[in-house]
Write a structure and sequence with these properties.
single chain; ubl conjugation; 267 residues; zinc-finger; alpha+beta; Ubiquitin-like (UB roll); globular; two-stranded antiparallel sheet; zinc
């Protein structure tokens, strides 16, 4: 068992291929690795390892995609006037905050999972937010994050040595062991060509709303948490010596290039 290292393994996770001995260890490994236990039907398989079983799996996957897309196109709620008014309201309120919020077509994963809302009484956004920690290959999804919450407070349950959850802290120990001054929060600049990916660095001491102003958001924000002392391939705008720091709304490209692979994952 790769979780407790005590008992003989009886199960193997279809998603990450980790061996487990019991239901308890299965649940622990899912929590520690943010694993859903569902086999990745779109995972790369080399030609040498490709079998008839993989071919059948791909065929069934494409059939499922077709059925799901057809069902989405026929769903009355998705195309109802109320849904369209809600999306229009969200985009309009975001525009009032100097945020260009774009929504994807029906069937895209980000469109389906987005839970962002706007509270008219409080005049406040409650964002659907994704945190990505590249150095640990970990990502977490947050729902209902108020727009006046600072990025420091948002990250405390994950990388703060004292306030973070013990399980999460263990997985993100590279971050929790590093000084807070080494932590950088980046957000991808949308509407750029795929061979020119750039990121904006955010101010951790400011609120989420202040950091999103002047940015283009596709459905919901995705924040990348990196460490200055560790190498990464993310180019921050204004630090590669070729482009000045500027807002992402000056860039132009087709929206279809933003979410590469989303159509294949529309089921």
């Amino acid at each position: 068992c790769e979780t407790c290292s005590k008992e003989e393994a009886k199960y193997r996770c279809p998603r990450c291929m980790k061996y487990s001995c019991s239901l308890l260890c299965v649940k622990k490994h899912k929590l520690a690795l943010s694993c859903n236990g569902v086999r990745d039907k779109t995972a790369f398989v080399s030609v040498n390892e490709f079998t008839d079983l993989n071919l059948l799996s791909d065929y069934r996957f494409l059939e499922d995609v077709g059925r799901t897309a057809d069902a989405a196109a026929r769903h009355c709620v998705v195309h109802s006037p109320a849904t369209k008014r809600l999306l229009y309201c969200l985009r309009n309120k975001a525009r009032g905050c100097n945020i260009e919020l774009k929504t994807l077509p029906v069937g895209f994963t980000k469109r389906r999972e987005n839970s962002t809302t706007f509270n008219s009484v409080e005049n406040k956004f409650y964002w659907h937010l994704k945190l990505v920690f590249p150095h640990c290959q970990a990502e977490y999804t947050l729902k209902g994050v108020p727009d006046d919450k600072t990025l420091v407070d948002i990250l405390k349950p994950y990388i703060d040595p004292v306030e973070s959850d013990p399980v999460v802290c263990q997985r993100l120990k590279i971050y929790t062991a590093s000084p807070q001054s080494d932590v950088r929060i980046l957000m991808k600049i949308e509407n750029r060509s795929r061979n020119s990916v750039r990121y904006n660095e955010l101010d951790a001491s400011r609120s989420l709303l202040d950091n999103l102003k002047g940015k283009v958001i596709i459905e919901y924000p995705t924040l990348f948490v990196v460490l200055k002392t560790l190498k990464n391939d993310m180019v921050v705008l204004g630090q590669d010596g070729s482009e000045p720091a500027e807002n992402s709304d000056s860039e132009s490209s087709s929206l279809s290039s933003v979410e590469e692979g989303e159509i294949r994952d529309s089921s």
